[in-house]
C-alpha cells in the first residue's frame, strides 16, 4: 500500500506564485521566493515542484543545500549548485566571465589556479561573480537556483543571497530558498527582503482538516469518501496538519496492519487506530530501522550522529562494518524510505527527512551519543589526516558532542583560522567565537591568546565592533593570569587596530600606549614593528599639520623593524605607507618604496600585497611622467587573480587620467561602468571617488550644472569619505570650470578653498592645484613671485607632469617680467612640451599666459591665442574661444568671424532673435554681476555690455535688469 502522495496538496497559492516567478524569469525579469515553515511542512516538496516545472519549461535548474556536515561551511550551497553545472556539461565558457572567473575559483575547485583565496574578494564580489555566471546560464531560457535549509547558512552565504536579491529584477534568474520558521539570520533576511519588495515570503501553514483528508486519499490512492472517519479524525488530530507526519502515520498504520483494503476500494481500520505524536513518528522510524536488523540499525544511528547527510567511508570506519553489510544496509534503508543517495558525491547518503535522523537520535542516551560522536571523530581524523576543508569543522562538532571541549575548541580555532585566511570572515568570527568560548578554562594561556588575536582580526574585517569591550576584558583577564607581557601587548595592538577601524581614535591610542608600556624600551623588533606601523596610520588619520612628518618617522622605524624581524605583511604595509608619504618629497624615492614592497610581497607569496604595491608604484609613475603603462599592467594582474576591488581602484585612476588627457568619451565609459559596479558592490569609497571623477569630467567640459549636481551627490553619498575628496572637488573640478567660464575671480576663490582644505588636513592628492595651477594663477594675479615659486618648486609634487606644466608656465612669466625674454620663451617651449599629453590644459595655459607674454615682449602670444581659440571653439567652450578672439583683436591681429556660434544659443532664445554675443551676456547675468565685470570677462567695453542688456530686455520682454537676471537663471541650463 502506497503511503506517499504523488502530488502537493493544499499549496495552490504558493504553486501559482512559483509558476508566475518562472514565467517572468524566462522573460528576463527574475525574482525570489522564500518558503518558510516547520520541519515536515512541505518546503522541499514545493521547491522540488518548482524545479520540475523549470526543467519542463526548458530552464536550467540548480540546487544546493546548506550543512552537509551539520556545520556552517562558507558558500557550501553555491559550490554544490555550480558543481552540478559542470557534471551536467552546462557550464558556460569561463572566458566570458573575465576576472570573475578567478573569483569563482573559491566555489569551483577546477577554476582555482591557486589565487582564488588570495584575490581579496569579499562575499559581495563573489556574489557579483555568481550573479554573472547564473545570468550566462539562464541566457535566453532562464535559470532557477534552489537553496535549501538556509536557516543553517553561514554569514558569507547569506551575504551572497542578499546581494542576489537586490539584483535579480533585470536578470533571467529565479531564486527559491527554504528555511525553518525559527529565529535566525536567514529569517531576518527573508523578512527584510519581503518588506523591500525584493522577494516573496510564504510562511507555510499546517494543512486544514479537509486538506489532510485529501492528502491521505492521495497517499493511499483511493477516493476521499473511501477513507474511514476514524482514520481521518486521528490523522488530523495527531499530525497537526504537518504533511510529513501525515505520511509517517499512514506508513506506520499500514506497516502494523491497522489498515486493510475492502473489496470496494475503501479502507477499514482494524483494532482501532492508536498513535501518539511525535512518539508515533519516532516509533514508525524506529520500527522500520528495527526490521533491518540490529547491525543495520546501529549503522544508521551512527550515521545520524554525523548529521542529516553522511559519508559512507566514515560510517564504515567508525562501525567496522564490511563493504557487503554496509551496502545491504543502504539498500534496505532506501527500500524503507529512510535514506537515499545524496547529490554531494558518490560516497554520500542522506536521510529522506531531517526528522528521520532526529527520531533515530531520540533513541540514544546522552552517554551513548557522546561515545558514538567520539568514534566518528576518531574515524574522520584517521581517514583524513590534517582534516582538510569541511572535515575540520565536522570533527570539532563531533568532539563537542562527545564532551571533549579542549579538542573541539582547538579544531574550531583551526577552522576559524582557515576561514579567515580564505576571506570568509563572517564564518571565521562564528567559528572563533565558539573556540574562544570552549577554551575559556583551557590552561594553555598562549593558545587562548592566539585564538583571541585571530578573532580580533576577523572582527575588524567584518566591522563587528560591539563585542570589543568584552574582548578587552578577556585580554585583561589573561594579563591577570600572568600571560607573557609580549602576547598581552600584541592583543592590545589588535584592540587598537579594531578601535581605529571603528573610528574611536581615543580608545585606539589608549590601547597602543598600553602596548608600548608592556613592551618597554628594550622591545624586540618583531614586537615593535606592528605597534609603529599602526601608530603611523593613526597619526596619518589625525587632523593636524604635523601628521605627515610624524607618520613618516613611525613608518620608517616600522619598516626597518619588520624587515629585521622578517614580518613581511607588516613590512609591506610600512613600505607602502612610506611610498605614499614620500610623494611629497621625492618621486624616485616613492617609486623605490613601492618597488621594495612588491619585492617583499613576491618573495613571501603575498598576492594581494604584491598587486597593491604594483598599483601604488604604477600610480606614482603616472603622476611623475604621465605614463599609464604600469597602471594598466597592474590592472591586468588584478584581472588575472580576480582582485576586483583593486581593479576598480585602478579604473578610477585611469578614468581621471583620461579626463586630463581630454579623452572625455573614454573617461565617461570608464566612470559610468565603474560607478554602476561599485555602487552595486557597495564599495562606498570607490563609488565616491568615481562620483568626484565624474564631476571633474563635467567641469573640464564646462558643464557647471552637471558638475555641481554630481558633487552634491558625492557629498550626500560619501559622508565623511567625501570630505577627503574636497581638495579635488575645488581644485580639479570647480576651479577649472570657472576658468572655462572665464571667471578668474571664482577660480582663484575655488583654488584658495582647495588649499585651505589641504592645509587643515594634508592629503596625498597632488593634482588639486597646490603645487601647480595655484602657483600659475597667483603669478598671473601678481600675488606670487620668486619666493613663493621657490617654495613650491622645492616639493616633489611640483615635478609631477600635470603640475609641472603649470609650474613651467609660471616660471616663464616670472622670467619675462624680469626682462629675460629669451629664457622665458625657452621655458614656455618646455611647458608646451610637458603639456602635450594634456590638450585642454595646454591650450588653456596658452590663453592664460598670452597676455603677460605680450605685455613683457616675449614668446608668440598671437600664435598661442589662435591655437587656443581653434581648440576651444572645436570643444564648444565658447567663453574661452570668445576671450581668445577678443585678445587677438586687442593685440592687433586679424580674427576670422565664427558664424557657427549661433548654434550654441538655445533654440527658444534664437527664436527671440538673441545673438551669440547677447547670449554670452545673458549667461553671465545669471550671477547678477555688473557691466564692468561682464565686460572684463568678455573683453568688450562696459558701454557695449549696456547695449546688449538693453537689447535683451526688449527681446525677452523683461521690465528691468533684475527681472532679466531671474529670467536668465530660470531659462539657461546646461
Highlighted features:
974 residues; 10 strands; elongated
Give me a quick take on this structure:
This protein is mainly alpha-helical and 974 residues long.
Strand order of the largest sheet: 2-3-4-1-5
Category from helices, strands and their pairing: mainly alpha
Q: Helix fraction? A: 55-70%
Total of helices: 48
- Beta-strand content: under 5%
What is the end-to-end distance? 79 Å
The largest β sheet comes out as: 5 strands, parallel
Return residue spans where pLDDT drops below 50 for at least 5 consecutive residues: none
Beta strand count: 10
Mean pLDDT: 88
Q: What radius of gyration results from the CA coordinates?
A: 37 Å
Structural notes for this entry:
A 5-stranded parallel beta sheet has the order 2-3-4-1-5, with helices on both faces. Strands 8-10-9 form a 3-stranded antiparallel beta sheet. Strands 6-7 form a two-stranded antiparallel sheet. The longest helix is centred in the middle third of the chain and has 19 residues. With 974 residues, it is mainly alpha-helical. Helix 12 crosses helix 15, helix 19 packs antiparallel against helix 20 and helix 45 packs across helix 47. The radius of gyration is 37 Å and the shape is elongated. Helix content is 66%, strand content 5%. The chain contains 48 helices and 10 strands. Helix 6 links the parallel strand 3 and strand 4. The relative contact order is 0.04.
Chain-wise SSE layout:
Blueprint: H1 12-26, E1 31-37, H2 43-56, E2 60-65, H3 76-87, H4 100-103, H5 123-137, E3 143-148, H6 155-166, E4 173-180, H7 185-196, E5 200-203, H8 209-220, H9 229-239, H10 243-255, E6 259-261, E7 267-269, H11 279-290, H12 294-306, E8 309-311, H13 312-319, H14 323-335, E9 339-341, E10 348-351, H15 354-361, H16 366-383, H17 391-401, H18 405-421, H19 425-438, H20 445-462, H21 468-480, H22 485-501, H23 505-519, H24 525-541, H25 547-565, H26 568-582, H27 587-603, H28 607-625, H29 629-641, H30 644-660, H31 664-680, H32 684-699, H33 704-718, H34 720-724, H35 726-740, H36 744-760, H37 773-781, H38 786-793, H39 801-817, H40 821-834, H41 839-856, H42 861-874, H43 878-890, H44 907-911, H45 916-925, H46 931-938, H47 942-956, H48 961-971
Parallel strand pairs: 1-4, 1-5, 2-3, 3-4
Antiparallel strand pairs: 6-7, 8-10, 9-10
Helix pairs in contact: 1-2, 5-6, 6-7, 8-9, 8-10, 9-10, 10-11, 11-15, 12-13, 12-14, 12-15, 13-16, 16-17, 17-18, 18-19, 18-20, 19-20, 20-21, 20-22, 21-22, 22-23, 22-24, 23-24, 24-25, 24-26, 25-26, 26-27, 26-28, 27-28, 28-29, 29-30, 30-31, 30-32, 31-32, 32-33, 32-35, 33-35, 35-36, 36-37, 37-39, ...
Amino acid at each position: 500500500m502506497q503511503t506517499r502522495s504523488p502530488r502537493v496538496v493544499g499549496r495552490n497559492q504558493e504553486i501559482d506564485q512559483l509558476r508566475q516567478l518562472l514565467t517572468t524569469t524566462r522573460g528576463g525579469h527574475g525574482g525570489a521566493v522564500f518558503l518558510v515553515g516547520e520541519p515536515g511542512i512541505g518546503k522541499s516538496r514545493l521547491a522540488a515542484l518548482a524545479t520540475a516545472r523549470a526543467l519542463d519549461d526548458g530552464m536550467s535548474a540548480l540546487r544546493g543545500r546548506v550543512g552537509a556536515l551539520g556545520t556552517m561551511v562558507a558558500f557550501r550551497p553555491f559550490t554544490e549548485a555550480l558543481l552540478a553545472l559542470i557534471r551536467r556539461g552546462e557550464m558556460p565558457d569561463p572566458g566570458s566571465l573575465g576576472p570573475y572567473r578567478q573569483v569563482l575559483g573559491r566555489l569551483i575547485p577546477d577554476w582555482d589556479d591557486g589565487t582564488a583565496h588570495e584575490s581579496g574578494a569579499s562575499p559581495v564580489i563573489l556574489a557579483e561573480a555568481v550573479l554573472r555566471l547564473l545570468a550566462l546560464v539562464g541566457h535566453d531560457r532562464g535559470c532557477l537556483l534552489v537553496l535549501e535549509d538556509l536557516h543553517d547558512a553561514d554569514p558569507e552565504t547569506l551575504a551572497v543571497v542578499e546581494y542576489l536579491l537586490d539584483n535579480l529584477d533585470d536578470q533571467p534568474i529565479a531564486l527559491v530558498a527554504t528555511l525553518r520558521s525559527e529565529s535566525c539570520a536567514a529569517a531576518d533576511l527573508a523578512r527584510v527582503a519581503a518588506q523591500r519588495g525584493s522577494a516573496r515570503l510564504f510562511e507555510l501553514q499546517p494543512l486544514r482538516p479537509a486538506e489532510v483528508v485529501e492528502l491521505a486519499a492521495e497517499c493511499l490512492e483511493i477516493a476521499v469518501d473511501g477513507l474511514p472517519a476514524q482514520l481521518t479524525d486521528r490523522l488530523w488530530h495527531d499530525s497537526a496538519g504537518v504533511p510529513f507526519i501525515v505520511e509517517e502515520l499512514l506508513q506506520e498504520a499500514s506497516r502494523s496492519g491497522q489498515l486493510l483494503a475492502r473489496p470496494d476500494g475503501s479502507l477499514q481500520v482494524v483494532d482501532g487506530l492508536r498513535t501518539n505524536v511525535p512518539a508515533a513518528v519516532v516509533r514508525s522510524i524506529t520500527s522500520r530501522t528495527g526490521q533491518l536488523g540490529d547491525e543495520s540499525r546501529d549503522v544508521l544511528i551512527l550515521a545520524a550522529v554525523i548529521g542529516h547527510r553522511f559519508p559512507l567511508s566514515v560510517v564504515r570506519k567508525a562501525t567496522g562494518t564490511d563493504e557487503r553489510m554496509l551496502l545491504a544496509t543502504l539498500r534496505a534503508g532506501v527500500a524503507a524510505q529512510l535514506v537515499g543517495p545524496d547529490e554531494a558525491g558518490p560516497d554520500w547518503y542522506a536521510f529522506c527527512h531531517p526528522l528521520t535522523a532526529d527520531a533515530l537520535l531520540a533513541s540514544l542516551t546522552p552517554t551513548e551519543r557522546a561515545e558514538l560522536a567520539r568514534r566518528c571523530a576518531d574515524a574522520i581524523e584517521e581517514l583524513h589526516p590534517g582534516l582538510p576543508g569541511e572535515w575540520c569543522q565536522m570533527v570539532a562538532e563531533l568532539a563537542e558532542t562527545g564532551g571533549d571541549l579542549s579538542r573541539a575548541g582547538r579544531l574550531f580555532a583551526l577552522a576559524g583560522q582557515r576561514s579567515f585566511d580564505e576571506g570568509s570572515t563572517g564564518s571565521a568570527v562564528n567559528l572563533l567565537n565558539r573556540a574562544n568560548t570552549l577554551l575559556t578554562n583551557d590552561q594553555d594561556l598562549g593558545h587562548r591568546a592566539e585564538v583571541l588575536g585571530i578573532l580580533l582580526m576577523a572582527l575588524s574585517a567584518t566591522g563587528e565592533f560591539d563585542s570589543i569591550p568584552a574582548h578587552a576584558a578577556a585580554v585583561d583577564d589573561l594579563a591577570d593570569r600572568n600571560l607573557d607581557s609580549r602576547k598581552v601587548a600584541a592583543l592590545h595592538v589588535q584592540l587598537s587596530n579594531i578601535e581605529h577601524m571603528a573610528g574611536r581614535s581615543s580608545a585606539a591610542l589608549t590601547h597602543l600606549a598600553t602596548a608600548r608600556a608592556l613592551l618597554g624600551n628594550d622591545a624586540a623588533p618583531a614586537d615593535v614593528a606592528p605597534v609603529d606601523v599602526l601608530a603611523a596610520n593613526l597619526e596619518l588619520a589625525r587632523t593636524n599639520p604635523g601628521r605627515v612628518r610624524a607618520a613618516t618617522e613611525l613608518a620608517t622605524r616600522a619598516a626597518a623593524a619588520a624587515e629585521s624581524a622578517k614580518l613581511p605583511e607588516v613590512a609591506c604595509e610600512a613600505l607602502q605607507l612610506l611610498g605614499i608619504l614620500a610623494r611629497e618629497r621625492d618621486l624616485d624615492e616613492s617609486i623605490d618604496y613601492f618597488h621594495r614592497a612588491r619585492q617583499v610581497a613576491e618573495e613571501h607569496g603575498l598576492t594581494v600585497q604584491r598587486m597593491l604595491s604594483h598599483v601604488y608604484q604604477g600610480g606614482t609613475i603616472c603622476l611623475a611622467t604621465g605614463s599609464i603603462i604600469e597602471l594598466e599592467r597592474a590592472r591586468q594582474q588584478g584581472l588575472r587573480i580576480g582582485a576586483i576591488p583593486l581593479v576598480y581602484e585602478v579604473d578610477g585612476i585611469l578614468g581621471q587620467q583620461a579626463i586630463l588627457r581630454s579623452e572625455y568619451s573614454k573617461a565617461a565609459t570608464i566612470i559610468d561602468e565603474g560607478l554602476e559596479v561599485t555602487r552595486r558592490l557597495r564599495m562606498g569609497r570607490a563609488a565616491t571617488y568615481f562620483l568626484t571623477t565624474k564631476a571633474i569630467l563635467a567641469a573640464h567640459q564646462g558643464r557647471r550644472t552637471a558638475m555641481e549636481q554630481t558633487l552634491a551627490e558625492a557629498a550626500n553619498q560619501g559622508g565623511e569619505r567625501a570630505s577627503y575628496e574636497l581638495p579635488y572637488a575645488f581644485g580639479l573640478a570647480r576651479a577649472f570650470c570657472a576658468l572655462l567660464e572665464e571667471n578668474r575671480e571664482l577660480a582663484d576663490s575655488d583654488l584658495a578653498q582647495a588649499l585651505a582644505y589641504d592645509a587643515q588636513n594634508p592629503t596625498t592628492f597632488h593634482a588639486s592645484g597646490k603645487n601647480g595651477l595655484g602657483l600659475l594663477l597667483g603669478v598671473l594675479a601678481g600675488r606670487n613671485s620668486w619666493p613663493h615659486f621657490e617654495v613650491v618648486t622645492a616639493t616633489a609634487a611640483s615635478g609631477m607632469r600635470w603640475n609641472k606644466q603649470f609650474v613651467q608656465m609660471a616660471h616663464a612669466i616670472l622670467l619675462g617680467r624680469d626682462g629675460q625674454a629669451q629664457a622665458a620663451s625657452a621655458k614656455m617651449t618646455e611647458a608646451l612640451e610637458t603639456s602635450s599629453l594634456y590638450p585642454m590644459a595646454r591650450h588653456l595655459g596658452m590663453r592664460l599666459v598670452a597676455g603677460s607674454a605680450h605685455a613683457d615682449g616675449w614668446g608668440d602670444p598671437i600664435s598661442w591665442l589662435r591655437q587656443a581659440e581653434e581648440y576651444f571653439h572645436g570643444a564648444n567652450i565658447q567663453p574661452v574661444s570668445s576671450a581668445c578672439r577678443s585678445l587677438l583683436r586687442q593685440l592687433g591681429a586679424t580674427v576670422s568671424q565664427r558664424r557657427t556660434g549661433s548654434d550654441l544659443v538655445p533654440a527658444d532664445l534664437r527664436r527671440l532673435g538673441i545673438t551669440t554675443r547677447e547670449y554670452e551676456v545673458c549667461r553671465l547675468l545669471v550671477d547678477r554681476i555688473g557691466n564692468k565685470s561682464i565686460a572684463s570677462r568678455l573683453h568688450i567695453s562696459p558701454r557695449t555690455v549696456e547695449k546688449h542688456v538693453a537689447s535683451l530686455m526688449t527681446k525677452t520682454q523683461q521690465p528691468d535688469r533684475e527681472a532679466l537676471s531671474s529670467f536668465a537663471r530660470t531659462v539657461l541650463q546646461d
